[in-house]
Amino acid sequence: MLKPLLFLLTLSQCANALEIPNGYRLEHYRAPTPDSVEGAKTINTKELQSLLAKTTPPPILIDVLAITRRPESEELDSAWLLTKPRYNLPHSIWLPNVGYGTLDLEMENYFRDNLAKATAQNQQRALVFYCIADCWMSWNACKRAASWGYQQIYWYKEGTDGWEQAGLPTENSIPIPLKLH
Question: Is 133 contained in some domain?
Answer without folding.
Answer: yes
